[in-house]
Design goal:
Elements: H1 8-18, H2 21-26, H3 36-54, H4 58-64, E1 67-69, E2 72-74, H5 79-88, H6 107-120, H7 122-141, H8 144-156, E3 159-164, E4 180-183, E5 189-199, E6 208-215, E7 228-233, E8 253-258, E9 269-282, H9 288-324, H10 348-380, H11 384-420, H12 431-439, H13 448-462, H14 466-480, H15 487-513, H16 516-550, H17 556-572, H18 575-584, H19 588-591
Parallel strand pairs: 3-6
Antiparallel strand pairs: 1-2, 4-5, 5-9, 6-7, 7-9, 8-9
Length: about 600
Amino acid sequence: MPEYRAPIKEINFVFNDLLTIESHYQNTPGCAEVTPDLIEAILEEAGKFAATVLQPINAIGDEQGCHWDDGAVTTPDGFKAAYDQYKAAGWTGVTFDKAYGGQGLPYSLGTALSEMVSAANSSWGMYPGLTAGAIHAIAAHGSDEQKQRYLPKMVAGDWTGTMCLTEAHCGSDLGMLRTKATPLDDGSYAITGSKIFISAGEHDMSDNIIHLVLARLPGAPSGTKGISLFIVPKYRIAESGDVAANDNKENGVSCGSIEHKMGINGSSTCVINFDNAQGFLIGPENRGLNCMFTMMNVARLGTAMQGLAIAEASLQGATAYARERLQGRSLSGVKAPDKAADPIIVHPDVRRMLLTMKAFTEGNRALGYFTAKEVDIAHRSTDKGEATKADKALGFLTPICKAFFTETGFEVTNHGVQVLGGHGYIKEWGMEQLVRDCRITMIYEGTTGIQALDLIGRKVLADKGEGLRQVIAHIMADMEKLPESLSDYKKTMMLTLAEWGELGNSIGKKAMDNADEIGAASFDFLMYSGYVCLAWQWANMAAAASVKIAQGSDDSFYQGKLQTARFYFERIFPRAQTHKNTLLSGAGNLMAMAAEDF
């Protein structure tokens, strides 16, 4: 199994040299107490927990999986003990409101913690991750009574949460869902239906599970406009706020089965049945999908970070192996004359894979943390104009992060297996588990195709390009700050930014005659956008490294940033042009063939 170590130096580089996070926190309401010393202490402790508690049970979770027995789910050995330790240390409430027992720390700092958790053990991280999404949804849309009833227990980690959206017959088309909500005399609702693919839907790690369930009220409009959102606890809750007594706690919620999956085996993926379960409306009637999007957007950013995190674990494993594995001699001459062969890291093709892994992982981290910083601003800034701009940029970047980080994360984990060769394909080395665990990230919380449609359809065309313009303006401002030594990057980026806007306009014009042009161009537009955003981040990282070198630093870490930026611009960024050419080719080459001819 790869020996994971939290990349504290990399995280500090992004926080301090790239995002000037100290200044950001000092100027963000409610964050003034987040000092460099506090950040360092939190990162160090979280890194230790990830490396010493979570990573050692990662392979165990993969091997054992979860076990279902008559509706009860048992998690793998060590999972509950790790959760109890996580809860006792206060990690469950780091970023949540102090009013409900949280620590009130900024979302961006929590993002670094979630990266460490997912890199060390992505399956285990699903349990607190889903709970965080449920907390955000209740905090945003719940009544004061609901917040007081559920949030303190969830923030403390005593209760966990889920999101119950899809059903067997509808997949991602939630407008087809059939789960019913029947009003009761006491103001609650009887929820009846069955949900599938419910992550953390049943387990043995918490005292109660709070399900957020999409269902239809009697007479509700068809489609997505007739969906409401309900809070449905696994166990009924007494007036005291605790789980009801044994003879009155069952709430008609049961786990029908768990899925046997390709990866993330330590995460229970459940069929959850609701049989006249008592539920409580959250938010307005028939606006459930809008309320659920609060949770889904949090989950999408969390999934993006999961793709990045698993890539980081693979990068660490592949790099360590390439430095030690002896095989063949360098084409340009012997590099290790005292050994029987040279380490494989001297070979150009191995370096191609490692640098690709490094360029995506570190570039995605920079973009992910920038996006998390925008969350801080959008949610905390008292300047409405600043908050609105951040929210627009956030809306535009979220589908890019979710899809691009997971697509490239999967590519990284595949390279990780290839670097190890035959050993990479064998379970005991742990690299193939990372491939399997990463594969789901491209599917759940909206597939890459759904994210792509959201980006071009809602965030560019329907929004009239406002989010795109916000991001382009930010990139242009950053490019103006680049030192003369990076003028080639600036020139490349300025030309690309003009092209980016033109591509959006081109798709919109074609779609006026044929709506299929949106779907045909969407994936390539998203991937093009991802490559542009990473080029932006690598230009910024190269600039930050140049400053350090100019100040006299002889740390090779900064030279590595310059060299990886060069690799990205010369060998990875050209992929964007292929995506441009592909999307401009139009819908005809996709849609002309009759279905029966496939």
